[in-house]
Amino acid sequence: MAKDLQVGVLSLQGSVEEHRSMLGKIKNVKPIEVKSLTALESVNGIILPGGESTTISKLLIEFGLFEPLKQRIKQGLPVWGTCAGMILLAKDVIGENPHLGLMDITVRRNAYGRQINSFTVSENIPALSEQRIELPFIRAPWIENVGKDVEVLCSLNKHIVAAKERNMLVTSFHPELTDCLAVHQYFIEKMIRAVENNK
Q1: Which residue in the list 18, 19, 83, 180 is annotated as catalytic?
Q2: pLDDT for the residue 199
Q3: What is the DSSP annotation of 78-98?
Q4: Catalytic center at which residues (predicted)?
Q5: Fewer CB atoms inside 10 Å of the end CB: C or N, the chain?
Q6: How far apart are CA 57 and CA 98, in angstroms?
Q7: Which whole number is the average pLDDT over 56-69?
């Protein structure tokens, strides 16, 4: 592409620096902190990082970003939600009201238990990488049900932990906490296609 892709990381709370660091390792990508409307309007795609979904949702409202972010995603902005980001995007969240409510999935938050129950596994996910990749789970959700247009990318012990629908990608795990760029590169490739299609 003629100029760098502007890749936003929602920078209100959570694993912001980790995602920015990973994006900075990818050629022709410029990481952008998104905590203002101007920054949101400038990006070609956005990552909703792990953190605490209820807190991030409240901060989105406080910063005046909730509806603008929702509308941009509805209009096709590529978005990737990791962990809490998955919860933010889900149309249904067991035990609480949905937040952005855009992706046709039902999510159970903290499904893998508390911080002390965190773990990492190595899995082969053909849609994301030709190599096995590490999947760190930290107070992670999983997907209990998906709509007819949702493509399941990875299941672990019969629980869905990665999926996509149109311009939306979600993972229960945290690729930004590993040395593997595979999932970030997969998301960038989706963004490039979306940008090219909109020319």
Answers
A1: 83
A2: 55
A3: -EEEETHHHHHHEEEETTB--
A4: 83 (nucleophile), 174 (charge relay system), 176 (charge relay system)
A5: C
A6: 10
A7: 96
Please check whether residue 43 is in contact with residue 192, taking contact to mean a CB–CB distance below 8 angstroms: no
Q: Extract the tokens encoding 24.
A: 């900075």
Q: What single-letter DSSP state applies at residue 26?
A: S
Question: What does the DSSP 8-state code read for residue 116?
Answer: G
d(C-alpha 89, C-alpha 108), whole Å: 13
Per the annotation, does 53 bind a ligand?
A: yes
Q: Regarding predicted confidence, which is higher, 128 or 151?
A: 151
**Domains of the chain as residue ranges with CATH:** 5-197 (3.40.50.880)
Q: Active-site residue among 18, 19, 165, 176?
A: 176
Is the CB of residue 48 less than 8 Å from the CB of residue 56?
A: yes
**Is-catalytic flag, 19?**
no
Q: Report how far residue 53's alpha carbon sits from residue 39's, in angstroms, rounded to the nearest whole number.
A: 21
CA–CA–CA angle 185, 171, 6 (5° rounding):
40
- CA quadruple 74, 155, 140, 35: dihedral positive or negative? negative
174 catalytic per annotation: yes
Asked about 180 being catalytic, the answer comes back as no
Residue 108 is assigned to a ligand binding site: no
Residue 41 annotated as binding? no
